[in-house]
Amino acid sequence: LLMFIPKEILMMITCQLSLYLYVANPESLRLGWKRRASFSFVLLNESGKELFKKPEILFNFFNAEVTGWGYTKALPLKELKKKGLLEKKKIIVKVEVKVVEVIDGGHVTGKDTLDVSGFQVLYSQAIRVSKLFVKHPDMAVNFRLTNQLVRTTYINILLGLIETLEKPPHSISETELGNARSELNDLTQAGFKLEWLKTKIDEVSLKRKVSNAPNDTRVQELEEDIKNIKDELNKEKVKFLSLEQTVSDLRDEVWDFKDELNKKRKLNPQ
Prior knowledge:
The protein is an alpha+beta fold. The chain folds into 2 domains: 2-103, Apoptosis, Tumor Necrosis Factor Receptor Associated Protein 2, Chain A; 113-210, no CATH class. It has helices at residues 7-12, 77-82, 123-135, 148-165, 174-190, 195-267; strands at residues 2-4, 16-22, 34-44, 50-53, 57-63, 68-76, 92-103, 113-116, 119-122. Strands 3, 4, 5 and 7 form a 4-stranded antiparallel beta sheet that branches. It has a 3-stranded antiparallel beta sheet with strand order 1-2-6. The chain is elongated, with a radius of gyration of 38 Å. Residues 5-13 have low confidence and may be disordered. InterPro entries: MATH/TRAF_dom, MCC, PLipase-like, TRAF-like.
């Protein structure tokens, strides 16, 4: 099954021709199925002349979790005209496939998937995703992307985001918090209704600041200690300079006294 990326996704990848090869009717195959295959894409004009060929993708596994492989950016659309591919505004895509291994399973494995509210998720994720939709039934009502692989990617991003926010606030780094906000923005733009997650991120951010406050206080204390030590050193330096001057003055007095003695000896020799 040859598939082009849907229009809304195509717009997101800066006018690139995207080509993917998918397993047709994967739901009809037994649980645990796998196919290993090599394949390549060839673009032809209406006359059947080969004008462009994408290098062969070698020995990729297709299974219930990953039903398709291909290129998000196979060829810039502007190149179609340059290379004369659009003969009479038509293009032919030929796929050359070599199946090198076929595995038919019969039991549930850790990589088998099932449908939960329109999303293909791993069996190990099914209960969690189901509870998520029970708690937030309208969460994905505005999510319009139909490509199942893309839908699975988005639901995995959502699960990863929730997992991050479930960690103790003090263990979440500033980078992780920034990534969480970025992922939330991507999910929201895709159509997910996640006001509750935004609230969660704000709560985690606040708790993180509070939990890290003692560290900030300790830093201030250390800085104050350093300042006090510097002040003490400066005081000692002043004392040292004063003492040094006193020693110098005494030395001068000693020399003056010696000179005076020498003069007296010369005037009153014995």
